[in-house]
Write a structure and sequence with these properties.
The complex is a heterodimer. Chain A is an all-beta fold. Chain A has no helices and eleven strands. Helices cover 0% and strands 58% of the residues of chain B. The chains are: A mainly beta, B mainly beta.
């Protein structure tokens, strides 16, 4: 596609449930990033991939969060045993390497009741 | 620790009233400083990248400048459609987090007709 695509755009779930968020980056972009943005805050780094491997996962808040990119294109962010504090907009971004601008998707808004 | 501080948090202008947004940063070797625009419910949209002190870039009514400690986003004769949150981010040349962007909290700009 022309831009970064994220699905679902909105997800409402109950506390304790499992959630998957999907990101389809711009074709040919080798680097893929996940950020989390709470209301009134800037994007907070979670993890980034260079190809299939996670190059830096230092932003993942705890072991309930996990992300994969098995074929070096689409990525899935997985959240186990969701908590109300996980409610936020999860942004995905991609770029051709480790320099230059990041192109962001529209985000997946997660609400944990 | 790499850090980005943006001021003011919010800015209200009349149409045509020029002003500047500030981004102060601390980074262990600047690889790049980025400005993004974010509209409500949307992902950040890339505006500029600056790489070295003294560099300036312009786009329509926006001009970004960079020193060794801060960057300014100057808005000349703003229009209501310039209303948005403006985000600043830095990327470091060093350390384990050199692949990712560290964002500030943003400045919410409102331009009244």
């Amino acid at each position: 596609g022309a831009g970064v695509s994220q699905t679902p755009s909105n997800k409402v779930t109950e506390k304790g449930k499992y959630v998957e968020l999907r990101c389809d980056p711009i074709s040919g972009h080798t680097a893929l990033y996940w950020y989390r943005q709470s209301l009134g805050q800037g994007p907070e780094f979670l993890i980034y991939f260079q190809g299939t491997g996670a190059a830096d996962d230092s932003g993942l808040p705890n072991d309930r969060f996990f992300a994969v990119r098995p074929e070096g294109s689409v990525s899935t962010l997985k959240i186990q045993r969701t908590e109300r504090g996980d409610s936020a907009v999860y942004l995905c971004a991609s770029r051709t390497g480790l320099a230059g601008e990041l192109f962001f998707g529209e985000g997946s808004r997660l609400t944990v009741l | 620790e790499d850090q980005v501080t943006q001021s003011p948090e919010a800015l209200r202008l009349q149409e045509g009233e020029s002003s500047s947004l500030n981004c102060s940063y601390t980074v262990s070797g600047l690889r790049g400083l980025f400005w993004y625009r974010q509209d409500p419910g949307k992902g950040p949209e890339f505006l500029f990248t600056l790489y070295s002190a003294g560099e300036e870039k312009e786009k329509e009514r926006l001009k970004a400048t960079l020193t060794k400690k801060e960057s300014f986003l100057h808005i000349t004769a703003p229009k209501p459609e310039d209303s948005a949150t403006y985000l600043c981010a830095v990327q470091s040349n060093y350390g384990g987090s050199q692949g990712n962007l560290i964002f500030g909290k943003g400045t919410k700009l409102s331009v009244k007709p």
